[in-house]
Records
---
Amino acid sequence: MRNFDLAPLYRATVGFDRFADLVDTVLRAEAGNQPSYPPFNIEKTADDAYRISIAAAGFREEDLNIEVRENALIVTATKPEDETERTYLHRGIATRAFERRFHLADHVRVTGASLVNGMLDIDLVREVPEALKPRRIEIAGPTGTPVVEGSKAA
């Protein structure tokens, strides 16, 4: 496995410690430790809108739980034991319990979820507060008054 030095990333950024820690965690994670059940898709549906689709075949709405906690989206499912005794010749549909975690960026919130035809769709939207949007800063001239375009500083 390759080792990456993230020191230049820490030196060149201010306030992105959480991002650098996330990158560091991802690089340290081994591929064998990543859960593969259930399969999922993440799609971008608009400029600031996303959808996570999880294959939840065999689960009902009552069996699924979606929770947002500390910038993490946690999807869990538990299937109650089947009370009727069945004899399977082949059992290829997995209905075992699972937990999936997705790390959410700042200002991303869950707007809704639906379960249709065995697909759990979770809609997300990124809403950047007005205070965090870019704004233009006027530069003061030598007299302390802002310089307006087309005028000369005294």
Note: DSSP finds two helices and seven strands in the chain.
---
Amino acid sequence: MSASGDPAASQAANLKIKHDWYQTDALVVVTILLKNAPSDKVKVQYGERSLSVSSVIPNSDAEYSLELELAHEIIPSMCMHVVSPSKIEVKLRKKEGLRWTVLEGEGKEEKVKAIPQAVIDASGPQQPPKLFKKDWDKIEKDIKKMEEEEKPEGDAALNALFQKIYGEGSDEVRRAMNKSFLESGGTVLSTNWNQVAKDKVEVKPPDGLEFKKWDN
């Protein structure tokens, strides 16, 4: 019996593959750190309040599966996903201009600026007629334009930047980030492996603060 038919094996495989998310005013972006996923084996299904992602795990008989009950409604016809060597990125189009406080479950409604009607019109109808053919190139360009204009702020922006660097960086960059962050107690994050590989990375708390371990 292969691992793909064993629920315990599939669950164990999922635990090793992390996913995260961030948002703009118009989009919720879910990033799944599954490397070298075969694009023809990645299946994504969108519901008004649900997301389902499945993929064969490279060099394994196991299958990755992610099932989410979303905090708010999305527009399934205007969602898309991109498969790259380092990850699977799913872009969910918000139905309302709400700031999501959580990805799953019942999210607290927090109003933000509404999505301009012109942007919705330019992206095509929400419910395409039977013979309507979606212009994916145009939709992707519109989404990229919105992402450039509506950058996440604060911690979300910082987390998105770290995810991008970690996901697209070389093995040495990822080793440098892991080593510097762990050895410094989270006070240093370096991408220079040649520098951090030489010695232990010292703790460097912000000016005016003192670093203390929890067990002290």
Note: The chain has a mean pLDDT of 76.
---
Amino acid sequence: MSNTGVLTSRGAVNPLSPDQRLLVVGGGYTGQHFAERLRQLGADVVVTHRRAAAAAGELPFDSSTGLLPSAAELQGISHLLVTAPPDRQGQDPCLSSLKPLLDELPLQWAGYLSTTGVYGNQHGEWVDEYTPPAADLLPRSQARLQCEQAWLNSGWPVQVFRLPGIYGPGRNSLLALQRGDARHVHKPGQVFCRVHVDDIVGALLHCLQLAATQRPSIVNVCDNRPAPSSELLGYAAHLLDCPLPELHWFEAVQGSMSPMALSFWRDNRRVSNGKLTKELGYALQFPSYREGLQACLKAEALD
């Protein structure tokens, strides 16, 4: 392993040289956090935005309307991170719209943010990067798996990062409790995996620092502690010193849940991060939701 590897995003150095430029396709929660951290480290980063009149540090891109950046605007792009989800047809919007432009670039790294949903329902068992996807994937997970394969077959040096539930500042159960819209539901034996957004950023920076030959094509990025949602909510209530909402058993409330909510509860698995933390040597900043929620509490001054 390269001795210049980044162990955490807080101790990171700029992984790009002065003549390199990174494009983030999809300026959502994770994409913006990653871009902001890279800029803090002095990297040249641009993020796509769905408007023609892009601001500084932005490029116009909207596959649904045909809005594309020009070849001149993509000049110098050497690294790429794709955070955009599949479109309504299940296709990757970046590949379907930008590939001819990207083919003209000397891409040295392309990261694709996927989901651990591609493992499907494993009935609470542990999975890793060698676990085959379940046969009965949810439609959105099947679309992600197809997009993964498209990226891996693109001919570029691609890394797929499979992510579970993402939380962090501005997106966590502490805020849900304060807003009064947290649901306290328990399903025996059900666990969920999570990751703090700063550990996604840290893992990406870590992999960017590795030699190309040391970058696995697929990496799970999650914390060490799969846990029931009721356990996490209980800890959040403890940190806020507030009462928990009324407990509902899943069997009693599933009839009132939306199809999306029901699909959230259908899959049950424990995702291993051994490749990231043991083989690649990344040290999690937030090994569990406990450390992560404590950091959110301080960041948002909720106490």
Note: The chain has a mean pLDDT of 93.
